[in-house]
Structure formats: structure tokens, C-alpha cells
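INTERNAL AUDIT FORM
Audit reference: QA-55
Scope: verify that the stored structure record matches its stored sequence.
Auditor: D.O.
Record contents follow.
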Amino acid sequence: MSKEGMNKVLEFYNSVSEKGRLERGLGIIEFHRTKQILSKYINKDSNVIYDIGGGVGVYSDWLARKNNNVHLLELSPNAVEYAKSNYNTFISEVCDARDINKDNESADIILLMGPLYHLQNIADRLKVLDECYRVLKKGGLLFSVGISKFSTTTWALSTFGTRNELLTEKPFMNMIEMELKEGIHDRPQDYPYLLTHAYFHTPLQLQNEIETVGFKTLNKHAIEGTIWFTPDLNKKWEDIETRDILLNILEITEHEIEIMGMSPHFMVVSQK
């Protein structure tokens, strides 16, 4: 990662931008679904878990409360300080995912739900994956999350003419053309509310990168899936009956590779 890119990512997360994100909007569905997927595989306690790039520690806290030994390893010092001040269930440390300060084969489980989509250079992403392979025990599980290269475009299309006219704006179109062609996401100054400096994958591309360093793929899951553009989604989510309908659709289609790219986030589950 370039120094400029690192500075952009640090600036974004040092603002503690993740605070409350999973408690509003589409983050509510992302949080519910991510926990649902993780629970399919993490079904016993007392695991040593490294939550690498885990932001302010929301998932770390959830897993620690399930009697796991959790370490939040996060690039942003401000996010680590926030975690230390607001949670007492896990250990929080500043860490660059490309150089994990942990012993070989010391973790049962690794959550990698951020670093891979903030590293635009494939050499950096492979360095992170190599480090994860090193510190995972044999048979250990790796949960890697990617952002779809189609995510900004599908969002803009689904709200075009109702909530925005972004597709008529040249800086926005230049941004999504680069995402679609190269996977590179560079946020123009015109849109400070968008995600910072990032790399967007396709599901198969992320799987292939993970397998390059020796991991075996167990499964792939769409996280928000195809339900995310449902009109008035959050209102419908509050109704238990409607929520069950939406979740049923999502769970039936969560492994369909043909439409997985429609999901803003997807998860690849791998084993060493």
C-alpha cells in the first residue's frame, strides 16, 4: 500500500467511523447475517480468535461473550483506544495485518473482515493471507470478507432518480468505471461520505487469492445478498414475519455464485 493510501485508511478509521455503523441502516442486516454465518462454524467455546482489522471491536465483544479468548488486532490506534475504553471482554492491540505480532500456529480462528478490501496491491493482500496462514493452527478457520466490485454501481442504480442523480455526475462515473474495470475504489473529494481507499473483489477472485497461499475453501456466503435493495428494508426488517421471509430468500440464495456479486459483502470460509 502506498503511504498516501495508508494515510487515507488511517484517517478514515481514526475518526472511529465504525462506531455505531452496525446499528443503523444496512449495517443492521450485515451484523445479523455475519453473526448468523459465523455461528454455523464457530459452535464451541474456548477458541483463540484473532479479529484482524476488527474496527472498534463489535464482533470481538460478541465472540468473547461466547467464552472465547479474543484478540482485536486493529490498524487504527483510535479504534483500539475506543475498544479498550468501551469493552472489557477481549484484548485490543494495534497491528498491521501484513505483520501480525503473534506466534506461529497460535490461533484457532481468524476473522479477516476488513484488511483485504483496503489493500489495492495484490502483493499486500497476499502478505496478509500469508501471515494468517502462519499464525493459524492446522485445521484452523479463516473468515475473509470482501466488498463486491459491483456494490457501488448496484446501489447507485437502485436509487437513481429517487434518492440521487449520481450517475449523471462525471467524478462519480469515473469512480465506478474504475471499480468495475479494475476493482480499484478511490473516493473523489466530492463524496466524503463514501468508503475510503479500497479494493473491491468478485467472489471467485477473493477465493482464488486466499487459495494461492494454501488455504482450502469450505464455502462462500453472500452476507446481505439480494435483499439489500428491498424498498424500506429497515422498516420491513423490524417486522418479524417479513424479516423471516427476507432471511429465507437470502439463505436459499446465499451460495449462488451467479448472483453473489449482487451482495455488497460476501464471506469466504477457509481452512488451513
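Auditor finding: record pair retrieved intact. The beta strands are 48-52, 69-74, 91-94, 107-112, 136-147, 184-185, 198-199, 216-222, 265-271.
Action required: none
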